[in-house]
Amino acid sequence: MRNNYVGDIGDFAKYGLLRTLACGKRLGVAWYLRTDSDPSGSNDGRHTDYLMRPEEWRHLDPELFDELGKLVRDGRRTVKAVAESGLLGDATFAAEPLDISPVLHGDRERWRREWFERTRAKLRDCDLVFADPDNSLYPDDGFRYRRKESAKRIPPSEVRALADGRPAVIYHHNTRARGGHHQEIRKWIGQLPPGTLAYYWRRWSNRTFFIVNPDAEIKRRFKTFEGRWAGTGETVRGGPRVGGRHRVCPGSGIQG
C-alpha cells in the first residue's frame, strides 16, 4: 500500500468488500505501507476517473463513493485520512511503514520478522483482518528478505499467521504469470488454507482478493457482495491443493 493509491478504483473495490464483510466484526487492517519513493513512473494510484462517473459506480456504496471522492478532491490521499474518515468503522490500523531501504542488508530479515510481529500484535484482538501489500503474494521458498522488492510482497507464511483462528482478506495484484490470471489465482488458492475464496476484480488493473478461513457469516456476506457488485469481477473457484489433492467448489453459489 502507498498513500498515493488512496481513493483510486482499487480502494473503492477493497473498502467496498471490507465494509460488506466486516459489519459486526472487529476489523484489523495491516497496511504493509510503503513510504519510500517509487521510481517506476507507473500509473498506480491514478485510476480515479470512476469518481467522474457516479451514474456507473455510486450505487454500489454511496457513502464510500462520496467519501473517497472528497479525499481525492481535498488532496488528503493518505491512509491516516482513511482511518480518520470512519469508512471502516472502529477498525484497528497497523500502519508502521514497511520500508527496508535504510536497513543494513544483513539486518533486513530480522527487521522484517520483527516488523511483522509488531503488526500481528497490534491486530491481536481483531476477528477479521485485511492485509494490503503493495503488490502481491509471493512464494515462501523464493522470498528474499534482504531484497528491496520483498517490501512489496506478502509470503503465505505471513498470511497463515495473520489468519490463524480467524478470517482474513488478502490483497493480490495480478501478475503476468504464464497461463493467465485464472490459473494464477487457482495456484494461490491451492497454496492457501483450504476453503479460501477468491474474488477477481476485472476493472482497470486486475487484482484479486483472497478470503482465507471464511466462516459461515463471512460466506453469506460475500455472496451479498457478489450480487451487489456483479459486473466488476468474478469469483474464481478450485485449484490444486498442496500435497497433490484437488479441490473444486461445485456450483455457482456459496454455501454458508
Protein architecture, described:
It contains eight helices and eleven strands. The protein is of the alpha/beta class and 256 residues long. It has a seven-stranded mixed beta sheet, sandwiched between helices. The two termini are 31 Å apart.
Main attributes of the structure:
256 residues, alpha/beta, seven-stranded mixed β-sheet
Q: Helices and strands in order, then pairings?
A:
Blueprint: H1 9-21, E1 27-30, H2 54-57, H3 62-73, H4 79-85, E2 92-94, H5 108-122, E3 128-131, E4 136-137, E5 153-154, H6 156-162, E6 168-173, H7 180-191, E7 197-201, E8 207-212, H8 216-228, E9 233-236, E10 239-240, E11 246-247
Parallel strand pairs: 1-2, 1-3, 3-6, 4-5
Antiparallel strand pairs: 6-8, 7-8, 7-9, 10-11
Number of helices: 8
Strand order of the largest sheet: 2-1-3-6-8-7-9
Largest sheet: 7 strands, mixed
The succession of helices and strands, N to C, reads HEHHHEHEEEHEHEEHEEE
Strand tally, please? 11
Distance between the termini: 31 Å
Instruction: Indicate the percent of residues in helices.
Output: 25-40%
Give the overall shape, derived from the CA principal axes.
globular
Unreliable stretches covering 5 or more consecutive residues: 39-45, 240-256
Round the mean pLDDT to the nearest integer and report it. 87
- The structure class reads alpha/beta
Gyration radius over CA: 18 Å
